[in-house]
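hey so i finally got around to running the thing on that chain from the lab meeting. sorry it took forever, my laptop kept dying and i had to restart like 3 times. anyway pasting the input first so we r on the same page abt which one it is
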Amino acid sequence: MELRLVLVWIAGSLLMAAGSWIMGNLELTVGVTEVSYAIALLASVVCFLLAGLCWISVGVAAKGR
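ok and heres what got predicted. didnt touch it at all, straight out
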C-alpha cells in the first residue's frame, strides 16, 4: 500500500479513538450546560463520521489498485 493510504487509515483510527474517548467521558452533571454537552456530542459524532470516511476512502483506493 502507498504511504498516503496508510496515513489516512491511521488517521481514521485516531479519529475513532477520539470519538470514543469523548463519548466515554460525556456526562451531563453539575457545571455542564446543555449547550456544551451538545457540542461535545456533536464533536464525537463528527469524529466517528470522519473515521468512517477515511476507512471507506482507503478501501475504495485499495480495491482500485
